[in-house]
């Protein structure tokens, strides 16, 4: 129940209180109070003073006070306050996390210069999506990603790679590479030989195992682009047309290619195929007109028709000069380098290096590689939908370089 109000004249008599003088805002407030409680007040609009009894609205008691004490408290403008909440240690931590979360939620994006020197490790994310046939039926995802395997990390390196299988057994080939390549690298990197030699050996052993395995690799194989990172050095090893790029901010954003696509129309790659007795030609339609990309063929038959000059497996392609020899390049990570994207050709088919870089930049400022990778998949899918009825498998790894 609410407490009964006390006339102001009684308060003045008992406590010798002086009448209040109201400024203009207070006068307006009192007019609103009078209109609401007209039966309990006599207010003179001319001089803004109390002329008779005024009953203020009563409040529920917060403490066990007498009626007069409650009314005096209201009259003096000092209502009782709620007691402060006492948190335990765990509750204080939760409150602190909530405050930090709220601050980060409205944090303004920061420029790349402000991020320099604030990082001490890598953060990364991988996304993959199966392709589809022209009738939109989903196909088997033949891509495979290698993300920091423990047997390589245990010897002080970080390994990232994307394998893009092709042919009837392509998914078996890419997964075999995913299992075996890190194992051989982890073992070989313990030796004292140069890192490039060890990478070369690991690729050769992995390909030999594929040829000797139960997997039919006559017309099936896989490309592989890999990055071996130790401290501020990157060793890029590429076989085929998957790709890796590094993005640098130095008076503007720039792309640093970490690999070179091994395409049949590349002059250097084409010459290797011709020297091995193979052919490099486009397919032809019923009228003999060239269509599609340049492909690798045997000199005497329309096979295997590979759209790359280097690949794991592909025994028939090997007769036309296709090899699994990696192109190994060495790069230094500078203070202006901010992120890396490793992806299968499902990403690069219709998106340029600069377009992929532009997709990632907004999420770099938010330290969110998950969303960056997800949006690469989304944009690559849209690009395929605009240009083709079918869609290749799409896989990407986004790595934020933390200094």
Automatic annotation (TrEMBL):
CDD domains registered for this protein in UniProt: PP2Cc
Domain PPM-type phosphatase: 123-401
Protein name (database record): PPM-type phosphatase domain-containing protein
GO molecular function term, any single one: protein serine/threonine phosphatase activity
A Pfam family assignment: PP2C
